[in-house]
Design brief:
By secondary structure, the protein is α+β, with helices and mostly antiparallel strands. It has four helices and seven strands. Helix 2 packs antiparallel against helix 3. The radius of gyration is 21 Å and the shape is elongated. The termini are far apart.
């Protein structure tokens, strides 16, 4: 039987807010393809791989750090942190007296979170250090929320594809399974956008640097 494989590379990129917040819509771009060359067995599990990337900032004041965030953030001068997710599901249809069945379904989720990092000098203002710490903790929390949504989607894809009843034709079964998977990808995109909308891209969670209550004291 043909091994069915589908992969989607998606990037959801909530911007962090700096001295002046510049919200932008979350970006989610996907591309799917089939691959029948993977010989590994399908075991019916969800596997998550997590990566973290950091980009280094310099600066001795809130203004310098804010400017460096704008200058060094890797994506089109709007985003200071984001989470990329790659979803892949595989199954090997089998035929018996009941018809064609999906059988076990594997879902692989690759998560990559990109965040800024700053090494404070020994004489850095403690108020600036506190402001940066609070901002980074809030930004990490926001990005973790995007990752959690992707994990939930991976579980749903595995469960929903596994639950598809036998079909008289394996080609029809594959088409139906991929429609189910893509529907969950669309739901994940919607959930990511909703998270950004309800949190102001992390602003209501505290992902604003240096933060309104600290701005006057650390400029």
């Amino acid at each position: 039987m043909r091994l069915v494989f589908l992969s989607l590379l998606v990037s959801c990129s909530p911007p962090g807010a700096v001295l002046v917040s510049t919200p932008a819509p979350a970006e989610v771009d996907g591309d799917g393809y089939h691959d029948t060359a993977d010989p590994s067995p399908v075991l019916g599990r969800v596997h998550v791989t997590v990566h973290e990337e950091r980009y280094q900032l310099t600066g001795a004041t809130a203004e310098e750090l804010s400017q460096d965030l704008h200058r060094r953030r890797p994506r089109d001068e709007r985003f200071t942190g984001w989470t990329r997710w790659r979803l892949r599901w595989r199954f090997e249809p089998t035929e018996d007296a009941r018809g064609c069945s999906v059988g076990p379904v594997d879902v692989d989720l690759d998560l990559t979170t990109v965040l800024p990092t700053w090494a404070a000098s020994v004489d850095a203002d403690p108020r600036l250090i506190d402001a940066w710490r609070d901002y980074l903790v809030a930004l990490e929390e926001h990005e973790r929320g995007h990752g959690d949504l992707a994990r939930e989607a991976a579980e749903r894809i595995r469960d929903q594809l596994t639950a598809i009843p036998p079909t008289r034709d394996c080609a029809l079964l594959r088409d139906h399974a991929h429609r189910v998977g893509h529907a969950e990808v669309q739901r994940l995109r919607h959930d990511n956008a909703q998270l950004d909308e309800t949190t102001g891209h992390g602003a209501t969670q505290g992902a604003i640097f240096p933060g309104p209550e600290r701005l006057a004291s650390v400029e």
